[in-house]
Amino acid sequence: MESAIGVLVSQFKAYAGSDGSSETLSREEFHRLVASQLPNFVKDAGDPAVIDQLMGSLDQNSDGELTFLEFWQLIGRLANQHGGFSQ
After folding, report:
1. Rounded distance between C-alpha atoms, residue 23 and residue 17, angstroms
2. What is the DSSP string of 5-30?
3. For residues 29 and 85, is the Cβ–Cβ distance under 8 A?
4. How far is residue 30's CA from residue 71's CA, in Å, rounded to a whole number?
5. 3-state secondary structure (DSSP) of residue 37
6. Cα–Cα distances in angstroms (integers) from residue 67 to residues 29, 32, 72, 85, in the given order
7. Residues of the chain with pLDDT under 50
């Protein structure tokens, strides 16, 4: 599990840092990350409207960016669905 967490953190920082701060994902960075890294887990990952809606559901403070903790919610949801756990 430690290596999986390391990969998640490094991928977040790599995508987040593409337009400045590696602390948050902008809308564009989030689109690229989901389309590239989660195409089989996020339905219609190539559809900008779907990604915008997903980002809005994660962006708790409505600042238009995702912190790692906000992004982590998505990872938890996807892992929960993938593992067949109940909501």
Report:
1. 7
2. HHHHHHHHHHHHGGGS-SSEE-HHHH
3. no
4. 9
5. helix
6. 12, 16, 8, 25
7. none
* Residues of the chain by 3-state class (helix, strand, coil), percent to 5: 65, 5, 30
CA distance 66 to 14: 14
Q: Among 44, 39, 15, which residue's Cα sits nearest to residue 27?
A: 15
- Give the tens place of pLDDT for each residue, 54-63: 999 999 999 9
- What lies within 8 Å, CB to CB, of 69 at 6+ separation is none
Contact 34, 46 (CB under 8 A): no
Cα–Cα distance for residue pair 23/42, rounded to 1 Å? 23
